[in-house]
Amino acid sequence: MPAESLPKIVAFGDSLTAGYGLPAHESYPSLLQEQLAKDGYQYEVINAGVSGDTTAGGLRRIDWALAQGDVRFVILELGANDLLRGQSVAAMKKNLAQMIERAQARGAQVVLAGMYAPTSTGAAYQKEVATAFQSLAREYDVTLIPFFLDRVVGVENLNLEDGIHPNAEGTRIVAETVYQALKPKLDEQGRE
């Protein structure tokens, strides 16, 4: 079946989705596409990652991403840049909520990628961030990946020299984390 006619999974996010510092085929959406094909799932994964994007930027472009054909799933990975800039958690949460609402209004299921605030932001801010992602998942009944960079963050040999972005090996772990969250949803829909 040609890719254009396949149902879509939109990987929507920032540099962590775009695959910053990596060849396109090593980005997590590309690795996810390979895993889906290997396991017999017929979907086209669209990499809608934009380096440096915040939740405000994502809100401005979400409608474009949702207009990419038969979008069944959106993997929503935004908020890291908001947190690195110390922006309001309430504003981040509001932006994420609006993106979830727009995706659900078009019939897409959302997998929300949780983020942790840097330790330098303090315990209160970190707790507010964790609570924001958890409450969004409950309120909108979406699958939550508790921490998108689980098993990768802080592990020197899994990140680029900047210590922020996963390298090829780290990205494979991220892709596996995403796949494990997405797979039960795919199984509910059945193999096309």
Percent range for β-strand residues? 5-15%
CATH fold naming: Rossmann fold
Known CATH architecture: 3-Layer(aba) Sandwich
List the secondary-structure elements in sequence, H or E: EHHEHEHHEHEH
Question: What is the makeup of the main sheet?
Answer: 5 strands, parallel
Number of helices: 7
Separation of termini? 11 Å
State the helical fraction: 40-55%
Q: Return the average pLDDT rounded to an integer.
A: 94
For the record, what is the CATH homologous superfamily label? SGNH hydrolase
Across the major sheet, the strand order is 2-1-3-4-5
Determine the oligomeric state from the structure: single chain
CA radius of gyration: 16 Å
Describe the structure.
This protein has 192 residues and is of the alpha/beta class. The chain has one domain (3-189): Rossmann fold (3-Layer(aba) Sandwich), CATH 3.40.50. It is 46% helix and 14% strand. The chain is built from seven helices and five strands. Strand 4, helix 6 (123-140) and strand 5 form a beta-alpha-beta unit. The termini are close together. The model has no long low-confidence stretch (mean pLDDT 94).
Describe the structure using short key phrases.
globular, 192 residues, 46% helix, Rossmann fold, alpha/beta
Quick recap:
With 192 residues, the protein is α/β, with parallel strands linked by helices. It is built from seven helices and five strands.
Question: Which helices and strands occur, and which strands form pairs?
Answer:
Elements: E1 8-13, H1 15-18, H2 28-38, E2 44-49, H3 55-66, E3 71-77, H4 80-84, H5 89-105, E4 109-113, H6 123-140, E5 143-145, H7 168-189
Parallel strand pairs: 1-2, 1-3, 3-4, 4-5
Helix pairs in contact: 2-7, 3-5, 5-6
